[in-house]
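Batch job 17 of 40 flagged for manual review because the log was empty.
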Amino acid sequence: MTEPGKGKLGNKPKKRTVRQTPKVVKSVVKAKSEKLKKAAKQKLSANRKNMSEAPAATLPSPRKNPPGKLHSKYLEEVKKIDKPTADEDRKTLRALSISDIRKNPRILIPKKKESPKDRILNRKAEMVKRIKAYTSKCGKDSYTLNYTQVASSHEYKIGLGEIFLCVKRLKIEKAGENPIIAERMIVPSGQHKGRVGFCDINTKEYIATFSGDKVTILDDKEEVDIKILNKEDEARKAHAKEYKQTEESYAASAYSPGQGIYKKDGKLDLHINSKKNAVSQLTEKWRKKLTKLQLKHAIIIEREFTKAGLPKSLIAAAIVNAYWESGLRNIQSTCKIKNRGWKEKGYYDKKGRLREASFGLFQMNATASVPMKRGMTETQRAEVKRRREQFRLDMLDPVKNCRKVIRRIKSRRPGSKKLLAAARAGASIAELTALFCIYIEIPADRFKRGRQRAGLSMKMFKHTEIPKRETLPPAKPGESLAKKFSAGPYKRNGVIKWTNGQEKLVLGSSSVSGVLHYHLKKNIARVGIGAYHAGNFFSHFKKHIWPDIKHFTPPKTVILAGFALNGIHTSGNADKAINKSIERHKKIIRFFKAWGVKEVLIATNQPYDKHGPKKKRRLNEFNKRIREQGLTNNSVDLAKKVAPNGHCLPGTLADKVHLSKRAGQMAARMYEQA
């Protein structure tokens, strides 16, 4: 028998008990688990932060908007076209005018009597030939455009609407920009209104493309409606007709050889040789002055601009501006920033000095290209700083710096369009240098800097000179001159109406141009130039207008109108500004009296308040002083009529500056009675 409480062998049985965990141990285990969780969260957030701060190129991104089935279909057909056929097609397109290419969707495959089905098939065949003509690379993902292999003028005059004739939707990729999804339509608004082209699917804005841009066809199915094609063909014809008229009128008033910026000795600047390299046409003095590195950078500028299809004269203008900006060196700006308190606008150089954040050959500004806006969070500010740093590194690469400038030149900005239009019209190096400064570089006091750089261009490059314009023979009785014009390097709009033997001449700013609509008598000649004043009279009028009118018989009376409106500034001492304007008027009076004019009067100016009460006070004081000095009389005291109490009467101003129709008619009568 076994004893109670023991097993068979006499051992005590093991007692099964549940282990009790103390509260202290529980809290320690919980703390460890929370610490591990916290560490895991911190690690995850750190990984996410590193991914967000990584360059965009390194981030794995899913493929968006892949090529459609039609892309590969047309790619096979494009590859079947051999080189001789493509060259012949390019030659055919090169021989046609821009308006003909825009108007005709069938050029390479001639039109003939055909069924609607055959018409669609032939239109597709035409599109395939045009894709081959205007592209340099055709791949599975995209076509790479190259307009210049047809003609350099096609770079900014031919678009995707003239190439992809039957495709509905495209993806357009420009270097350094997000892809754009575009759809073929009749452009609803803007400069290209009425043209068949590809517009942004969201904003409906026309998308201008240039050589190097990549295009992908996104359509999967062929949806070609004969009714839509008919509508587009009508729009093409209407737009081409309008474009042709615009080009003809522009050509009639375009730049011509000999119209440019005058040198000090009275000679004119013409053009460099367009068949030779621009760098090779630097003067010997400047070729010796520039170092090997500077010449290398000038060659890079010419190479990149030539690839983009830009003319030699514009390339020369770019080299001059790059020399002025950076000395043709790949450097950071040495200019101190004016507001030292705002460090975000500057950038520390290698020596730790706060300097302007401009970099590279053309001194592209990081703060302007990647702006820091108010109300940004710390994360957004950090992202802006990262992008500015990347911008700095890119701009210190001469090739990327040049390409950035080229994109700006070819953009849709109004200034860029003016620069390209001037280059297309044959403007001289000096004019293009000034326009490049004014619209692309945009420095402080850009018009003054533009004139200075224009002068430098005439020293740096070899250019043809012609002697000063010969004196015209005296005008015959009844000979007249009537034209609208754009005078000077910045193309001030103006108008001349003059018949030989007229008794009076009304000369002035845009206020005189406006009076032309109010039927002055035939015995009054008039010359009106926008933005003119007594300060720029001799630098503009005497050089650009005087040669056309000096052979006429001098009038008996000259009336100077509106020269103080633009000439009296609101900055500086008031007395000094007013007296300076009066002295300039007196100098003009002496000039005309030397010509043989018996009497020169100054019309009082309307004291407008568009630029504030300070401007109005100074104009009223100017009017008062010319009355006291006898430089005017009651018959041309315009301010006495439109502003008897020093404030313009209601209805006398059309746009807060210029006279209304009623006041203009009154001014015309006063000029007649003077």
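Reviewer: the log was empty due to a logging misconfiguration, but the result itself is present. The two ends are 153 Å apart (CA to CA). Unflagging and moving on to job 18.
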